Amino acid sequence: MQDTPNSQTNNSNEPLEKIDASAVSPAPARCVPSGTFHDEAHNTETSSIDTMPSLEELLRQAELTSAEHHDAWLRAKAETENVRRRALEDVARAGKFAVEKFATELLAVKDSLEAALANENQNAENLKAGVELTLKQLSAAFEKSHLVEISPLGEKFDPHKHQAISQTEAEGEPNQVLSVLQKGYTLHDRVIRPALVIVSKAK
Protein backbone atom coordinates (compact mmCIF):
# COMPACT_ATOMS: atom_id res chain seq x y z
CA MET A 1 0.00 0.00 0.00
CA GLN A 2 1.48 3.33 -1.03
CA ASP A 3 1.48 6.42 1.17
CA THR A 4 -0.63 9.26 0.03
CA PRO A 5 1.12 12.47 -0.77
CA ASN A 6 1.67 14.94 2.11
CA SER A 7 1.02 12.18 4.59
CA GLN A 8 3.47 11.89 7.51
CA THR A 9 4.21 8.69 9.39
CA ASN A 10 6.01 7.87 12.59
CA ASN A 11 8.18 4.90 13.22
CA SER A 12 5.02 2.76 13.56
CA ASN A 13 3.94 3.83 10.09
CA GLU A 14 0.91 5.52 11.66
CA PRO A 15 -0.17 8.85 10.26
CA LEU A 16 0.85 11.91 12.35
CA GLU A 17 -1.78 14.37 13.40
CA LYS A 18 -1.23 17.88 12.15
CA ILE A 19 -0.83 20.55 14.83
CA ASP A 20 -2.56 23.84 14.38
CA ALA A 21 0.01 26.56 15.04
CA SER A 22 -2.68 29.00 16.05
CA ALA A 23 -3.74 26.68 18.83
CA VAL A 24 -0.30 26.78 20.51
CA SER A 25 -0.06 29.59 23.03
CA PRO A 26 3.37 31.21 23.49
CA ALA A 27 5.24 30.70 26.80
CA PRO A 28 4.72 33.59 29.16
CA ALA A 29 7.71 35.99 29.22
CA ARG A 30 9.65 36.28 32.51
CA CYS A 31 9.08 39.70 33.92
CA VAL A 32 12.27 41.40 35.23
CA PRO A 33 11.74 44.47 37.38
CA SER A 34 12.91 47.61 35.74
CA GLY A 35 16.37 48.80 36.92
CA THR A 36 17.36 45.55 38.65
CA PHE A 37 20.75 45.18 36.89
CA HIS A 38 21.50 48.86 37.27
CA ASP A 39 20.72 48.73 40.98
CA GLU A 40 22.96 45.69 41.53
CA ALA A 41 25.89 47.34 39.72
CA HIS A 42 25.30 50.55 41.62
CA ASN A 43 25.23 48.69 44.94
CA THR A 44 28.54 46.96 44.09
CA GLU A 45 30.19 50.28 43.22
CA THR A 46 28.82 51.87 46.37
CA SER A 47 30.18 49.02 48.50
CA SER A 48 33.63 49.38 46.91
CA ILE A 49 33.64 53.13 47.44
CA ASP A 50 32.60 52.71 51.07
CA THR A 51 35.64 50.50 51.74
CA MET A 52 38.11 53.00 50.19
CA PRO A 53 39.61 55.64 52.51
CA SER A 54 38.47 59.15 51.89
CA LEU A 55 40.77 61.89 50.64
CA GLU A 56 40.67 63.50 54.07
CA GLU A 57 41.80 60.25 55.67
CA LEU A 58 44.62 59.82 53.16
CA LEU A 59 45.72 63.39 53.76
CA ARG A 60 45.64 62.91 57.52
CA GLN A 61 47.75 59.74 57.27
CA ALA A 62 50.24 61.51 55.00
CA GLU A 63 50.53 64.40 57.45
CA LEU A 64 51.14 61.99 60.34
CA THR A 65 53.84 60.16 58.39
CA SER A 66 55.46 63.45 57.42
CA ALA A 67 55.44 64.61 61.03
CA GLU A 68 57.06 61.36 62.19
CA HIS A 69 59.79 61.67 59.57
CA HIS A 70 60.38 65.30 60.52
CA ASP A 71 60.70 64.42 64.20
CA ALA A 72 63.15 61.62 63.38
CA TRP A 73 65.19 64.03 61.27
CA LEU A 74 65.27 66.59 64.08
CA ARG A 75 66.45 63.96 66.56
CA ALA A 76 69.15 62.74 64.19
CA LYS A 77 70.29 66.30 63.55
CA ALA A 78 70.46 67.05 67.27
CA GLU A 79 72.44 63.87 67.95
CA THR A 80 74.86 64.69 65.14
CA GLU A 81 75.36 68.17 66.54
CA ASN A 82 76.00 66.74 70.01
CA VAL A 83 78.58 64.30 68.65
CA ARG A 84 80.33 67.10 66.74
CA ARG A 85 80.34 69.35 69.82
CA ARG A 86 81.75 66.59 72.03
CA ALA A 87 84.44 65.84 69.44
CA LEU A 88 85.48 69.50 69.34
CA GLU A 89 85.61 69.60 73.13
CA ASP A 90 87.75 66.45 73.21
CA VAL A 91 90.15 67.93 70.66
CA ALA A 92 90.36 71.16 72.63
CA ARG A 93 91.07 69.29 75.86
CA ALA A 94 93.65 67.09 74.15
CA GLY A 95 95.46 70.12 72.79
CA LYS A 96 95.31 71.93 76.10
CA PHE A 97 96.59 69.06 78.22
CA ALA A 98 98.79 67.29 75.65
CA VAL A 99 101.96 68.21 77.57
CA GLU A 100 100.49 67.40 80.99
CA LYS A 101 102.42 64.14 81.34
CA PHE A 102 105.64 65.70 80.09
CA ALA A 103 105.20 68.67 82.41
CA THR A 104 104.72 66.30 85.34
CA GLU A 105 108.02 64.59 84.51
CA LEU A 106 109.79 67.95 84.38
CA LEU A 107 108.69 68.78 87.91
CA ALA A 108 111.17 66.23 89.26
CA VAL A 109 113.95 67.88 87.26
CA LYS A 110 113.06 71.27 88.66
CA ASP A 111 113.01 69.88 92.20
CA SER A 112 116.53 68.48 91.74
CA LEU A 113 117.87 71.78 90.42
CA GLU A 114 116.34 73.72 93.29
CA ALA A 115 117.77 71.26 95.82
CA ALA A 116 121.24 71.64 94.29
CA LEU A 117 121.08 75.42 94.45
CA ALA A 118 119.82 75.35 98.03
CA ASN A 119 122.92 73.46 99.24
CA GLU A 120 125.54 76.17 99.73
CA ASN A 121 128.20 73.89 101.22
CA GLN A 122 128.49 71.36 98.37
CA ASN A 123 131.79 71.04 96.54
CA ALA A 124 132.37 70.83 92.81
CA GLU A 125 132.29 67.03 92.80
CA ASN A 126 128.93 66.88 94.52
CA LEU A 127 127.61 69.59 92.21
CA LYS A 128 128.70 67.60 89.16
CA ALA A 129 127.04 64.46 90.52
CA GLY A 130 123.84 66.39 91.14
CA VAL A 131 123.86 67.80 87.60
CA GLU A 132 124.42 64.33 86.14
CA LEU A 133 121.49 62.99 88.16
CA THR A 134 119.30 65.85 86.97
CA LEU A 135 120.31 65.17 83.36
CA LYS A 136 119.31 61.53 83.76
CA GLN A 137 115.92 62.60 85.09
CA LEU A 138 115.47 64.93 82.14
CA SER A 139 116.50 62.24 79.64
CA ALA A 140 114.03 59.82 81.23
CA ALA A 141 111.27 62.42 80.91
CA PHE A 142 112.18 62.88 77.24
CA GLU A 143 112.08 59.14 76.64
CA LYS A 144 108.67 58.72 78.26
CA SER A 145 107.33 61.48 76.03
CA HIS A 146 108.88 59.88 72.91
CA LEU A 147 111.28 62.80 72.54
CA VAL A 148 114.44 61.25 71.04
CA GLU A 149 117.70 63.06 70.39
CA ILE A 150 119.50 63.03 67.03
CA SER A 151 123.27 62.74 67.42
CA PRO A 152 124.51 61.54 64.00
CA LEU A 153 128.28 61.66 64.49
CA GLY A 154 129.94 59.38 61.90
CA GLU A 155 126.66 58.75 60.06
CA LYS A 156 125.81 59.59 56.47
CA PHE A 157 124.29 63.03 56.05
CA ASP A 158 120.48 62.92 55.99
CA PRO A 159 118.87 66.18 54.83
CA HIS A 160 115.61 65.16 56.51
CA LYS A 161 117.23 65.02 59.96
CA HIS A 162 120.44 67.04 59.65
CA GLN A 163 121.24 70.61 58.76
CA ALA A 164 124.74 71.10 57.33
CA ILE A 165 126.53 74.21 58.54
CA SER A 166 129.66 73.66 56.48
CA GLN A 167 131.69 71.08 54.55
CA THR A 168 135.24 70.05 55.26
CA GLU A 169 137.64 67.99 53.17
CA ALA A 170 138.30 64.68 54.84
CA GLU A 171 139.50 61.17 54.15
CA GLY A 172 136.93 58.54 53.38
CA GLU A 173 133.54 58.84 51.77
CA PRO A 174 132.00 62.27 51.25
CA ASN A 175 128.79 63.44 52.94
CA GLN A 176 129.71 61.93 56.30
CA VAL A 177 128.93 63.81 59.51
CA LEU A 178 132.26 64.92 60.95
CA SER A 179 130.99 66.96 63.86
CA VAL A 180 127.70 67.66 65.66
CA LEU A 181 127.38 71.27 66.76
CA GLN A 182 123.88 70.87 68.17
CA LYS A 183 121.83 67.75 68.69
CA GLY A 184 118.49 67.42 67.00
CA TYR A 185 115.29 65.88 68.32
CA THR A 186 112.32 63.91 67.02
CA LEU A 187 108.91 63.63 68.62
CA HIS A 188 107.07 60.45 67.64
CA ASP A 189 109.40 60.10 64.62
CA ARG A 190 108.72 63.69 63.56
CA VAL A 191 111.73 65.97 63.42
CA ILE A 192 111.11 68.99 65.63
CA ARG A 193 114.71 70.20 65.41
CA PRO A 194 117.37 68.99 62.95
CA ALA A 195 120.90 68.37 64.14
CA LEU A 196 123.43 71.03 63.17
CA VAL A 197 126.41 69.24 61.63
CA ILE A 198 129.63 69.62 59.66
CA VAL A 199 129.81 67.33 56.64
CA SER A 200 132.82 65.86 54.85
CA LYS A 201 133.62 66.37 51.19
CA ALA A 202 136.09 64.72 48.87
CA LYS A 203 139.59 66.15 48.64
From TrEMBL:
Residues 1-14 have a biased composition (Polar residues). NCBIfam families: PRK14139.1, PRK14140.1, PRK14150.1. The keyword Cytoplasm applies. It comes from the Bacteria. One of its GO terms (cellular component) is cytosol. Keywords: Chaperone, Coiled coil, Cytoplasm, Stress response. Residues 1-47 are annotated as: Disordered. This is Protein GrpE. Homodimer. GO terms for biological process: protein folding. GO terms for molecular function: adenyl-nucleotide exchange factor activity; protein homodimerization activity; protein-folding chaperone binding; unfolded protein binding. InterPro entries: GrpE, GrpE_CC, GrpE_head. It is found in: Cytoplasm. Transmembrane segments: none annotated. Participates actively in the response to hyperosmotic and heat shock by preventing the aggregation of stress-denatured proteins, in association with DnaK and GrpE. It is the nucleotide exchange factor for DnaK and may function as a thermosensor. Unfolded proteins bind initially to DnaJ; upon interaction with the DnaJ-bound protein, DnaK hydrolyzes its bound ATP, resulting in the formation of a stable complex. GrpE releases ADP from DnaK; ATP binding to DnaK triggers the release of the substrate protein, thus completing the reaction cycle. The gene is grpE. CDD domains: GrpE. Its main location: cytoplasm. Residues 103-141 form a coiled coil. Belongs to the GrpE family.
